[in-house]
Amino acid sequence: MRGDLVRKLAARCLTTGLAVLAFVVLALTGATGWGLALAVAALAASAAEQRIRPSADLVAETALIAAAILVGYSRRLDDELNLALVATGLVLLGLVLLVGPLRTAGSLEIRAANLRVRAWTPMIADRLGTALLGLLAALALAAALALPAGVALAASLLVGAGAGAVALELARRRFRPRAGGGSVTAALRRHQPEFLLYFSAPPGSEYQVTMWLPYLERIGRPFLVVLREPEFLAPIAAATGAPVVYCPTLGAMDEALVPSLRVAFYVNHGAKNSHCVRFTQLTHIQLHHGDSDKAPSANPVSGIFDRIFVAGQAAIDRYARAGVQIPADKFVVVGRPQVESIEVRPEPARGLAHPTVLYTPTWTGHHADADYCSLPVADRLLRQLLERGATVILRAHPYTAQNPASARQLGRLTELLVADRARTGRQHVVGAAARELSLTECVNSADALVSDVSGVISDFLYSGKPYAVADMGDEGDRFVERFPLAGSGYVLRRDMSNVDEVLTALLDTDPLAEARWATRRRYLGDFPAESYAEAFLTAARRELAPAETLTASTPA
Fold this sequence. Notes:
Keywords: Membrane, Transmembrane, Transmembrane helix. This protein is α/β, with parallel strands linked by helices. It is 51% helix and 10% strand.
């Protein structure tokens, strides 16, 4: 966070400073060549700032750079008054003033991927800022080469014509929209989706969707993914063949939710979920993006959904334990289909000489009561694992980097494991290598797990292998009461004073081996391993079945 702020401030200062310097050099000195070079450098800084701050307002800087380039151009041509340059300046002024509003208007348009339609207008509007910077760079080059002013005017008019066409189309869509929606709506009507996956979340959360896409595809019915943040469009579209639609406004959602839809699935409790729940003709189903004893897993907001698909009875009990009253008929136990590829070890493996241990610290959370992160105390844990000859897979939560302190702590642990790998040859998996592995691959490679309170434990539980849980609240006996899943694991105290005892149980004696199987059934359902995911698929298809089909299939 602090590093991101510094980066943004540095970009802002560099862009503004170079723009002012370029103008001063070209307007007040005779160093035309140096001034044009500074103008190009200012354009490069502006382009970099647009990537760092996509919503940056660069009107003043761009106007200064354009004025500087025109002054330099006039000097190169030795003209006191060049009408072509005057006309170029007017076109550039219009572009500088219009680019921002056109980008804003374009950002409010519906966009789609994996559909046989391209919404060109918002795409072009989004790139007008880059086009203007490119035009100014071309004019700086033309000035340096002393090309005729008509060349500059022609290039400016070309970009101006494109901006004008975009402005007219956006105005038409705003003031005279087509009945029944635009081209994206028409393409969705042809696609006839029966359900949608709705998603809104902070950056870096796309894993919440991608973990469910393979199972939604296996339902065997046409569907679409509705997004509320534009940065997710490309990565999620790359993960599925289903249409992916970005809806920036409620009006865009009205266009995307075509009449063929019957069910909406959700994977979190994002505030914008209410924008979709308002469509009362749909059945709204919460899937969650993991099963854990964390406080957010018993969010009272779950009550707004028509159905809550849960992995096992433990999830239902979790709501009751938190005092959240939800009618029993809203819950449907479907297992956790993502674990179907996890290899099960039916017999405990005790006394391993060189075990592989998966360590999965979670992040600090948005609120103090959801901070289960063990990174601050993990140094001693990892050193003890290394002393026992363990190979470590360090797979941190995707949000870890959002907290600078956590990022530093993770960096130190990574350095520790990299140094041990160089010294001993043990193939610890850290950093990018760990992120490239799926959770299933990590679980299948490990003999045991050390984790914070998180959904990783539920997934690992399916394997039957032992796990340890860090008690970061230093709650003692109350820890297992609050987080029952820890009762079948080995609890690490916050101060790591029992780390030797826990690692012995985890990697050698494993006295809780039998208890884990009962916990596994309670948390993950009692479904056959060979058809584990069918519980979810059957439940989803049941919700998609027309009412008359369900009535006909119900025995009298």
